[in-house]
Amino acid sequence: METIFEKAIDLKHNNFLTVESKVPQIESEIDYNENELSRSIEQYKNKDLITFKKTRYESYKQWGFPKWKRTKLNGYDPLKYIEKINPKISGNPLSIDNIDEEGLKILAKYDMEGANRKFFLMSDTFFNTGFYIKTKKNEEKKPIILEYNLDNPIYENTIFNIKENSKVTVVRILNGSNEDGFRTTSLRGFLGKNAELTIINVAHLGDKDINIDNALFEVGENATVNVYDLHISGRISSPHYIFRLSGENSNAFMKPYFLGYNDNIIDMFYLIRFYGKNTTGDITGKGVLKDLSKAVFRGTLDIKKNAKEANASESEHTLLLSEKSRAEAIPSLLVDENEVNASHAASVGTLNEDTLYYLMTRGFSKVEAKRLLSLAIFESFIDEVEKYHKETSEVIRNVIESKI
């Protein structure tokens, strides 16, 4: 089977040659080894999954942990390994241990660097949780809700197999820790003809937590994937999502939201690659930063040759509530086809003084007016969460109101 390996930068784009920078690697003296691998394997019965773990371990041990200048991460020492994590679950998804032949093909076919290759291979090798989310043809599956607490390190490996004319929504909630919590993931998925997948991510971290969320989806003919992605706080939050629009009339809609305070760092990467005709991809990001927090927003729209009549758009806005908070927006548009519609924009700004004044004339204090305008940025996301998990939507609202 041909493996599809998606990188953040496609070095084969047209006739251009791209020079790829190398991330420095640092070996950890307490890195996981055969001991943790054996303990991980003992949790699973599926022989193909066990073989997969062993194969990925051979790659894993070849890599060191990254020295990420942008996130101030100088290598990493893994936390004490926990063999199994049990989230709160509703919707009856299958454990990844029940993956079938179709799921195994998805697992084998799709690969990528992720936010960092070492962390991506870490979740592939040592996953201590994960699901096989599969629909039947013409099925509208009940929403699936997965709620994790970051009390122990989480390594998630989840496969999505969304069949023709089917539909499912998955809500992934991550509650942060009071210590040095850590999560890294590998998500892979394929959407068949006319299928629809919606993923709602809620990551509310502690100030010392690290969360790395890697995902790669291939979208078939007339299929649609929607991702709502909220990141609040965290020492490092690093979502890395890639969509392949391979089917004619396929669609991907990515909606990131973020709130940083204290010295949080939120380092986001979202990529939509257009291969099929009449495809539509949109990235719309919004966020608020205060104190010494920092956000890097990298959104890339990559339109390949023969992706005629593709519609590609991207916008991102960051609201700064502190002179010392920092935002970097890096929108990229790569076009290798003439017959397309494409646009991108990014902005960083402060609250509009005229709007503030207007609200104050209506009886709001300046603090209340600031809070109201900032909260409005997240309202559409909160409304989306409320459809499936009201308790979490209220938590998000209270956190945002208390931190702004």
From TrEMBL:
<protein>
    <submittedName>
        <fullName>Iron-regulated ABC transporter permease protein SufD</fullName>
    </submittedName>
</protein>
<dbReference type="InterPro" id="IPR000825">
    <property type="entry name" value="SUF_FeS_clus_asmbl_SufBD_core"/>
</dbReference>
<dbReference type="Pfam" id="PF01458">
    <property type="entry name" value="SUFBD_core"/>
</dbReference>
<feature type="domain" description="SUF system FeS cluster assembly SufBD core">
    <location>
        <begin position="154"/>
        <end position="375"/>
    </location>
</feature>
<dbReference type="InterPro" id="IPR055346">
    <property type="entry name" value="Fe-S_cluster_assembly_SufBD"/>
</dbReference>
<dbReference type="InterPro" id="IPR037284">
    <property type="entry name" value="SUF_FeS_clus_asmbl_SufBD_sf"/>
</dbReference>
<dbReference type="GO" id="GO:0016226">
    <property type="term" value="P:iron-sulfur cluster assembly"/>
</dbReference>
